[in-house]
Amino acid sequence: MFRLYGERYRQSRKVPAAHLKVMRAIQSCRTEVLGGHVQKCASCGAEHPAFNSCRNRNCPKCGSSATDRWLQRRQQELLPTGYFHLVFTVPHELNPLFLVNPRALISILFKAVSETLSDFGRTHLHGRIGFLGVLHTWDQTLGSHFHIHCLIPGGALSFDGSRWIAARSNFLFHVRALSIVFRGKFLDFLAAAHGRGKLVFHGSTAPLAKSGPFQQLLSTVRKKKWGVYAKRPFASPEIVLAYLGRYTHRTAISNHRILAVEQGSITFSYRDRKDSGQQKAMTLDAGEFIRRFLLHVLPSGLMRIRHFGFLANRAKADQLACCRQALQAPPPEPAVPSPAFLAWIENSKRCPTCHTGTLIPVRTLAPVRWNSS
Length: 373
What we know:
- By secondary structure, the chain is an alpha+beta fold.
- It has helices at 2-12, 17-28, 63-75, 95-100, 102-125, 175-195, 211-222, 237-247, 286-294, 316-326, 339-348, and strands at 36-41, 47-51, 83-89, 130-138, 144-153, 155-157, 164-166, 228-234, 258-262, 265-272, 278-285, 305-309, 359-365.
- The chain has 3 domains: 2-56 and 338-365, no CATH class; 77-252 and 303-326, no CATH class; 253-294, no CATH class.
- 38% of the residues lie in helices and 22% in strands.
């Protein structure tokens, strides 16, 4: 897609440097541009080039190995308890502010979610909860839809670290109460950032630089019901891992959803949430598709996956040990690659010519100069 229509897109508008970098990485991924090596079959002698991957976090082809490495680390953190899945969503009226202030607004979003859940853990479970937050910025048609998926073990660690306080098996917190507190915290943090001059305004958001229009926006979204959605609890920790493997390391759309790239248009599949989740197809002009995809490129260094409570990076080693002791759970087993990843590795070593021999690297391939056209 980028190879066919990327140059026309770059010439038709001013593209930010961060977006150009992503386009170049994806366009070059696993091509001669990045170099690689030649593999020779030990059985039939056939030679096959294997080009390097770009390893850009927005590339749909480079997520599988990163996902498996990440899952191996998460495997060490699973607790023998039920897990809950909550989704926190902000109203679409705030999308323009997110798009011009992604770093500030996403930080506010994570802070509002983490403080809301931590407060409920303290007041309802009387302990410290732990949870994982995954930011998504898209909907099924690649539009802007800022929300955080939270995966939460069903209980809390007492503040003295001696007891595990279990939640009910089918209920964690009341979502209506969560949404009210979440809304209040987010808007308070947003108003404070505006008051300190931490936000920028341009394009359609330019009028919001003044206090009057900004306060009117806050008043409008404060009257709305903010979406906090509780999905069915996970049946086991193993199912949590299977879910995470599908859901964490991807940006906007996976390759398998792209149905056709032809005549200047992109056709892709999506689930229509307004029509009982029916599978449908949408066709967009290539330029519009690229524009929508690049909307979800995050600023450099901004983390999309974050850990909180007793799963926070600075505390998890000691806190998880306390959780396991309180749950009378054995130490975690050594992390191992998933069967799917091992199968992928094994298949990548098999000769595509004879289908039986093993490919062996015999020489390197130097990178060639990238050609934007």
